[in-house]
Protein backbone atom coordinates (compact mmCIF):
# COMPACT_ATOMS: atom_id res chain seq x y z
CA UNK A 1 0.00 0.00 0.00
CA UNK A 2 1.34 3.45 -0.87
CA UNK A 3 1.23 6.04 1.89
CA UNK A 4 0.63 9.75 1.42
CA UNK A 5 2.96 12.10 3.30
CA UNK A 6 2.43 15.75 4.10
CA UNK A 7 5.25 17.93 5.42
CA UNK A 8 4.69 21.47 6.60
CA UNK A 9 7.06 24.14 7.86
CA UNK A 10 5.43 27.16 9.45
CA UNK A 11 7.03 30.39 10.62
CA UNK A 12 4.98 32.26 13.17
CA UNK A 13 4.74 36.03 13.18
CA UNK A 14 5.59 36.22 16.91
CA UNK A 15 6.36 34.12 19.98
CA UNK A 16 2.85 34.96 21.19
CA UNK A 17 1.38 33.63 17.92
CA UNK A 18 3.21 30.35 18.44
CA UNK A 19 2.03 30.05 22.05
CA UNK A 20 -1.58 30.61 20.97
CA UNK A 21 -1.11 28.04 18.21
CA UNK A 22 0.16 25.51 20.79
CA UNK A 23 -3.09 25.94 22.75
CA UNK A 24 -5.19 25.44 19.61
CA UNK A 25 -3.06 22.55 18.33
CA UNK A 26 -3.05 20.74 21.70
CA UNK A 27 -6.45 19.23 20.86
CA UNK A 28 -5.42 17.86 17.45
CA UNK A 29 -4.87 14.32 18.81
CA UNK A 30 -8.57 13.97 19.67
CA UNK A 31 -9.58 15.06 16.17
CA UNK A 32 -7.09 12.94 14.22
CA UNK A 33 -7.37 9.55 15.96
CA UNK A 34 -10.89 8.65 14.75
CA UNK A 35 -10.29 9.77 11.15
CA UNK A 36 -10.24 6.99 8.55
CA UNK A 37 -6.90 7.08 6.78
CA UNK A 38 -4.89 8.87 9.47
CA UNK A 39 -1.65 7.06 10.42
CA UNK A 40 0.85 9.35 12.13
CA UNK A 41 1.61 12.97 12.99
CA UNK A 42 4.79 14.39 14.49
CA UNK A 43 5.59 18.03 15.14
CA UNK A 44 8.53 19.87 16.66
CA UNK A 45 10.17 23.26 17.02
CA UNK A 46 13.32 23.87 14.97
CA UNK A 47 16.22 23.76 17.47
CA UNK A 48 17.96 26.83 16.02
CA UNK A 49 14.91 28.97 15.29
CA UNK A 50 11.89 28.61 17.59
CA UNK A 51 9.73 30.60 15.17
CA UNK A 52 9.70 27.54 12.86
CA UNK A 53 7.19 24.76 13.48
CA UNK A 54 7.71 21.50 11.55
CA UNK A 55 5.04 18.89 10.97
CA UNK A 56 5.04 15.53 9.22
CA UNK A 57 1.87 13.47 8.82
CA UNK A 58 1.20 10.13 7.13
CA UNK A 59 -2.11 9.10 5.57
CA UNK A 60 -3.44 6.07 3.70
CA UNK A 61 -4.27 8.32 0.73
CA UNK A 62 -4.35 11.88 -0.55
CA UNK A 63 -8.13 11.78 -0.17
CA UNK A 64 -7.78 10.98 3.56
CA UNK A 65 -5.58 14.07 3.99
CA UNK A 66 -8.07 16.17 2.02
CA UNK A 67 -10.90 14.88 4.24
CA UNK A 68 -8.93 16.09 7.30
CA UNK A 69 -8.57 19.51 5.67
CA UNK A 70 -12.36 19.66 5.29
CA UNK A 71 -13.12 19.03 8.98
CA UNK A 72 -14.52 21.93 11.00
CA UNK A 73 -11.58 21.76 13.42
CA UNK A 74 -8.95 22.05 10.66
CA UNK A 75 -10.85 24.79 8.85
CA UNK A 76 -11.12 26.80 12.07
CA UNK A 77 -7.39 26.33 12.84
CA UNK A 78 -6.41 27.47 9.33
CA UNK A 79 -8.72 30.48 9.45
CA UNK A 80 -7.34 31.49 12.84
CA UNK A 81 -3.73 31.09 11.67
CA UNK A 82 -4.37 33.13 8.53
CA UNK A 83 -5.48 36.09 10.66
CA UNK A 84 -1.90 36.94 11.61
CA UNK A 85 -0.38 34.09 13.60
CA UNK A 86 1.47 32.60 10.62
CA UNK A 87 4.02 34.53 8.60
CA UNK A 88 5.07 31.71 6.24
CA UNK A 89 3.76 28.21 5.52
CA UNK A 90 5.65 25.78 3.28
CA UNK A 91 3.68 22.62 2.46
CA UNK A 92 5.10 19.63 0.59
CA UNK A 93 2.97 16.57 -0.20
CA UNK A 94 3.96 13.37 -1.91
CA UNK A 95 3.23 9.68 -2.10
CA UNK A 96 5.56 7.18 -0.42
CA UNK A 97 5.88 3.97 -2.42
CA UNK A 98 7.91 2.13 0.21
CA UNK A 99 9.78 2.60 3.46
CA UNK A 100 12.49 0.51 5.08
CA UNK A 101 13.52 -0.14 8.66
CA UNK A 102 17.25 -0.48 9.26
CA UNK A 103 18.29 -1.62 12.75
CA UNK A 104 21.61 -2.63 14.26
CA UNK A 105 21.22 -4.36 17.61
CA UNK A 106 23.49 -2.75 20.24
CA UNK A 107 23.83 -6.10 22.05
CA UNK A 108 24.54 -8.67 19.35
CA UNK A 109 25.21 -6.44 16.28
CA UNK A 110 22.51 -8.24 14.28
CA UNK A 111 21.53 -6.11 11.27
CA UNK A 112 17.93 -5.92 10.11
CA UNK A 113 16.96 -4.31 6.83
CA UNK A 114 13.32 -4.89 6.01
CA UNK A 115 10.24 -3.29 4.56
CA UNK A 116 8.61 -1.04 7.12
CA UNK A 117 4.83 -0.68 7.14
CA UNK A 118 3.82 2.74 8.43
CA UNK A 119 0.29 1.48 9.04
CA UNK A 120 1.78 -0.75 11.78
CA UNK A 121 4.49 1.62 12.99
CA UNK A 122 4.27 1.14 16.75
CA UNK A 123 3.69 -2.59 16.42
CA UNK A 124 6.76 -2.97 14.17
CA UNK A 125 9.02 -0.78 16.30
CA UNK A 126 8.08 -2.81 19.40
CA UNK A 127 9.46 -6.01 17.85
CA UNK A 128 12.63 -7.19 19.63
CA UNK A 129 15.87 -8.19 17.92
CA UNK A 130 15.19 -11.58 16.29
CA UNK A 131 18.62 -12.85 17.32
CA UNK A 132 18.99 -11.86 21.02
CA UNK A 133 15.52 -10.43 21.86
CA UNK A 134 16.90 -6.97 22.76
CA UNK A 135 14.02 -4.49 23.01
CA UNK A 136 14.72 -1.32 21.05
CA UNK A 137 13.51 1.94 22.63
CA UNK A 138 10.05 2.92 21.44
CA UNK A 139 8.64 6.39 21.86
CA UNK A 140 5.28 5.80 23.48
CA UNK A 141 2.49 8.24 22.91
CA UNK A 142 1.72 10.29 26.00
CA UNK A 143 -0.58 13.21 26.72
CA UNK A 144 2.25 15.67 26.05
CA UNK A 145 3.91 13.69 23.26
CA UNK A 146 4.75 15.43 20.01
CA UNK A 147 3.68 12.34 18.08
CA UNK A 148 0.26 10.86 17.45
CA UNK A 149 0.16 7.22 16.33
CA UNK A 150 -2.98 5.74 14.87
CA UNK A 151 -1.88 2.14 15.37
CA UNK A 152 -1.42 2.71 19.10
CA UNK A 153 -5.21 2.43 19.47
CA UNK A 154 -6.41 0.59 16.38
CA UNK A 155 -6.00 -2.99 15.39
CA UNK A 156 -4.20 -3.77 12.09
CA UNK A 157 -7.52 -5.08 10.68
CA UNK A 158 -9.19 -1.72 11.33
CA UNK A 159 -6.38 0.13 9.58
CA UNK A 160 -6.50 -2.23 6.62
CA UNK A 161 -10.26 -1.64 6.32
CA UNK A 162 -9.71 2.13 6.51
CA UNK A 163 -7.14 1.95 3.72
CA UNK A 164 -9.44 0.07 1.36
Strand and helix layout:
Elements: E1 3-12, H1 15-25, H2 28-32, E2 38-45, E3 52-59, H3 62-69, H4 72-85, E4 86-96, E5 100-104, E6 111-115, H5 121-125, E7 147-149, H6 156-163
Helix pairs in contact: 1-4
Give a quick summary of the entry:
This protein is an alpha+beta fold. The protein is built from six helices and seven strands.
Structure description:
This protein is an alpha+beta fold and 164 residues long. The protein has a domain at 3-96: Alpha-Beta Plaits (2-Layer Sandwich), CATH 3.30.70. It is 31% helix and 30% strand. It contains 6 helices and 7 strands; from the N terminus they run E-H-H-E-E-H-H-E-E-E-H-E-H. The strands form 2 sheets. A 5-stranded antiparallel β-sheet has the order 4-1-3-2-7. A two-stranded antiparallel sheet has the order 5-6. Strand 2 (38-45) and strand 3 form a beta hairpin. The protein is globular. Residues 152-164 have low confidence and may be disordered.
Compute the average pLDDT: 83
Q: Helix count, per DSSP?
A: 6
User: Which CATH-level-2 architecture of the domain at 3-96?
Assistant: 2-Layer Sandwich
Can you tell me the CATH topology of the domain at 3-96?
Alpha-Beta Plaits
Radius of gyration: 17 Å
Question: Which regions are unreliable across 5 or more consecutive residues at pLDDT < 50?
Answer: 152-164
Largest sheet: 5 strands, antiparallel
Structural class: alpha+beta
What is the CATH C level class of the domain at 3-96, in words? Alpha Beta
Span from first to last CA? Answer: 10 Å
Order of helices and strands: EHHEEHHEEEHEH
Shape: globular
With strands numbered from the N-terminus, the spatial order across the biggest sheet is: 4-1-3-2-7
Strand content: 25-35%
Q: Give the helix proportion (percent range).
A: 25-40%
Number of strands: 7
Amino acid sequence: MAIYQSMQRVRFSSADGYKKFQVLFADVRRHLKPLPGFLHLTWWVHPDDPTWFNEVSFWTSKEALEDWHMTIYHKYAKAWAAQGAIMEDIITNFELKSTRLLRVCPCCSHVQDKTFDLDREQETLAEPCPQCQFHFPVMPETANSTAVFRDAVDSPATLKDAAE
